[in-house]
Here is the input.
Amino acid sequence: MSFAVHVSKGPQPGPELDLVLLMRNAAARARRVYPGPAGQVLARELNAWAEMGWRYGGSELMRRLARDILTREEPKEAAS
Here is the structure.
């Protein structure tokens, strides 16, 4: 009896890799767009999804979230 083991080395160039890069970029920007705990949670979720979630499909909600973060204006800093 023999067993085949498939070892994934991560997303390959193409749609999967593009989606992972979109999530990573949005995660990096989330903390600036949403300062405080909300931005931290969003960044963690986007990074976690980029790490593993892309394998399970159902990416439309995450894709919309990433696009929203990437197109939203950063808050202006208060003038001193």
